[in-house]
Write a structure and sequence with these properties.
- Helices cover 8% and strands 36% of the residues.
- By secondary structure, the chain is mostly beta strands.
- The protein starts with a helix and ends in a 24-residue tail after the last strand.
Length: 449
């Protein structure tokens, strides 16, 4: 990497944190109001509510756009020496019985403490790679980041870590951002990196470059395609997206998706559908929405929906599109039947809530059958909550990721130093109805809280 590329990356990190700070909301992530959407593009001192939503989103997108500057050729990158397993701890010290909801320490990770690492669930393991090795209390402290390129995979069944080949350049992902820079297709993890997108072939422990999509702001995966949602600014009146087929190594540009005039637009990919959303303009109470089936190109207009107005971001779990940022309710859309359902949210955040760059947020975290809502986990299929205990690591800048039926939490900053341990929460949600899980009523306060 050249000095100029490194400085570009530094500016991207600083700009992204500043953009995220401008988007900061209350710990409950209260949704946008009409006044918020029409307010001048300024932020009142001391206010924790999202006032200039469009400018915050634009700042994030502008920073993310710095990460993919050009089209690069498809060429392999030699792997580092082969992985080495670390010794497993006594499995009797890590309970895994159904219904257990406590955090339990993993074997020592072969990584130095870090923040903003790239995480992924791939090949039944957790991938943790890259990030920064310095404490960053706010955007002013991020001007000279210490990038990391090493990584490891953690197997929660055997409680073992394996070092992986170093990334060819710095990679990072801000957990507080709703726009993912990482996607998984089969055994391959795709990452938006400083010099263009990278593919980590987990089955070969090998990094490769792939061509870059134009103006990529977020990437997602379907069952066989990579989807890039392009950067946008408030008032564009459309959303643009591209798809990448690993079999051909080519990107395909698709027609623009029209959105309401003057609205704040966005798109997410859930269960093979591009969910296009817009807030504001004539849609002042709820989100406007349309679905595109990516495998066929079929467009299903939904118009105004029951989802209360908020920043247009969706997550997916158990065959549903979900909106985790509501004020009093979270909404779910069954993508097969197009039926809506909702759940009342807890009065305050708990468990999976932390601090990033000086402000508080809930993780955009899902497992195969649960989604994080207001810092707790909810299983929409069984309509049950499972209380997540407080994080076992410091809640400032920890590395947190969701797996198939577990959550991994590592490191975190305590005052000005990193913690160095990792913990696993397993299982996070009950399995068959015969299992008696530790469930709770979100309308009541747990003892001692």
């Amino acid at each position: 990497m050249t000095d100029n590329e490194f400085r570009d990356r530094q500016r991207a990190a600083t700009a992204l944190r500043e953009g995220l700070r401008q988007q900061a909301e209350t710990p409950q992530f209260t949704p946008l109001t009409v006044a918020d959407l029409t307010a001048p593009a300024t932020r009142r001192a001391g206010s924790g509510r999202l006032v200039a939503a469009g400018l915050g989103v634009a700042a994030v997108i502008a920073a993310l756009a710095l990460l993919v500057p050009s089209m690069l050729g498809d060429r392999p990158i030699p792997a580092a020496p082969g992985p080495v397993e670390t010794p497993s701890i006594d499995p009797t010290s890590t309970p895994t019985a159904p219904g257990v909801t406590g955090w339990h320490p993993t074997s020592p990770p072969p990584l130095s403490p870090r923040r903003d690492a790239v995480t992924a669930w791939v090949g039944d393991t957790y991938l943790v790679v890259g990030g920064f090795g310095d404490v960053c209390a706010d955007s002013a402290d991020c001007a000279d980041p210490k990038p990391l390129v090493d990584g490891a995979r953690y197997d929660p069944v055997t409680d073992t870590w394996r070092k992986i080949a170093d990334a060819p350049e710095q990679v990072f992902a801000h957990a507080a951002s709703p726009y993912p820079s990482t996607a998984v297709l089969g055994d391959t993890v795709y990452v938006l990196a400083s010099g263009g997108p990278l593919a980590y072939r987990a089955d070969r422990d090998r990094w490769e470059r792939i061509p870059a999509a134009e103006d990529s702001a977020a990437i997602y995966a379907t069952d066989r395609l990579l989807v890039s949602v392009r950067g946008f600014t408030t008032g564009d009146d459309f959303v643009r997206y591209d798809t990448f087929d690993p079999a051909t190594g080519n990107w395909t540009t698709h027609p623009k998706v029209k959105t309401p005039a003057g609205a704040i637009a966005g798109a997410s990919v859930v269960q093979g559908h591009l969910v296009v959303m817009a807030a504001g303009a004539e849609h002042t109470d709820t989100l406007w929405m349309t679905l595109i089936t990516l495998s066929t190109g079929e467009v299903t207009p939904l118009g105004s929906t029951p989802v209360e107005i908020q920043r247009p971001v969706a997550a997916g779990t158990a065959g549903l599109a979900a909106w985790p940022r509501g004020d009093t309710q979270a909404w779910f859309l069954n993508l097969d039947t197009l039926d809506w359902s909702s759940v009342d949210l807890p009065a305050r955040s708990r468990g999976l809530t932390g601090w990033n760059g000086g402000y508080r947020f809930d993780w955009y975290l899902t497992t195969e059958n649960a989604i994080a809502l207001r810092g707790q986990l909810y299983g929409p299929a069984l309509k049950e909550w499972v209380e997540v205990p407080d994080l076992p690591v410091p809640d400032h800048d920890p590395v947190v990721a969701g797996g198939a039926d577990s959550v991994l939490a590592c490191f975190g900053v305590d005052t000005a130093t990193f913690a160095d341990a990792c913990y696993l929460l397993r299982p996070v949600l009950p399995g068959p109805p015969s299992v008696a899980p530790e469930v709770w009523d979100p309308s009541t306060e747990p003892p001692g809280r």
